[in-house]
Amino acid sequence: MKTLAKFSGIAYLLIFISGFYANFAILGSLIDLGSSAKTTINIIGNSIQFRNGLFGFLAMLVADIFLIWSLFEFTKPANKRVAYVASLLRGFHALFFIIALFRLIEIYHITYKATNSIELQATVINLLSEFDMFWTIGLLFFGAHLVTLSFLCLKFKSIPKLISLLLVIAALGYFVDGLAKLYFQDYLDYQFYFEVVVILTAVIGELSFTIWLLILGFSRQNEKV
């Protein structure tokens, strides 16, 4: 159980590193949803950088799929049915991210050594919008996963109750940002503030759980719930 906890922590840490790299260091520096021309030119001129971002997202996806299994094995002693629900919700998150990732792969193929044009710009911005939409839907499922994970953590005496609370707060961050992105027409005007909320809550909540998995894990006497 202790080894499983640490491997889960490593996978979670990989998600943090690869996700921040791909989403903020790569996409954030290339994409400007307010300018399809600038975005397309950036992607065409930095195809290797864009491809590296795809690899970062792929690494994040592999780690996330591993966590579907490892966290289920880790938490099923608390409540097997709820652990199944948590895994299913995280699985839906992974499924929607796979669908979203195919949009980025298509962008890479159509822009690789391509010539900029109005038609290409329209296609690129539409694919980016679809990527954002599918990933956002997936993150809503992920938020629901964090709520069920928080409930499971409460069943373990060895896991600090504060971590369970922080996981719920992280889930609320995903819900607020995701629903605003899907339904708030002026979202782009306040995007920075929504992103600050979701990043802070996610980092504090999920990273606290990750650190606990990595450093503390489960000792023999803590395996019982």
Tell me what the structure shows.
With 225 residues, the protein is mostly helical. The protein has 7 helices and no strands. The chain is elongated.
Salient structural properties:
mainly alpha, single chain, 225 residues, 7 helices
Brief sketch in words of this structure:
With 225 residues, the chain is mainly alpha-helical. It has helices at 2-30, 36-45, 47-75, 80-111, 118-154, 161-183, 191-216.
Structural class of the secondary structure composition?
mainly alpha
Overall geometry: elongated
Q: Profile the largest sheet.
A: none
Low-confidence stretches: none
**Helical stretch count?**
7
Order of helices and strands: HHHHHHH
Q: What is the CA-CA span between the terminal residues?
A: 12 Å
Number of strands: 0
Strand content: under 5%
Specify the helix fraction band.
over 70%
Round the Cα radius of gyration to an integer and report it: 19 Å
What count of domains describes the coordinates?
1
Mean pLDDT over all positions: 91
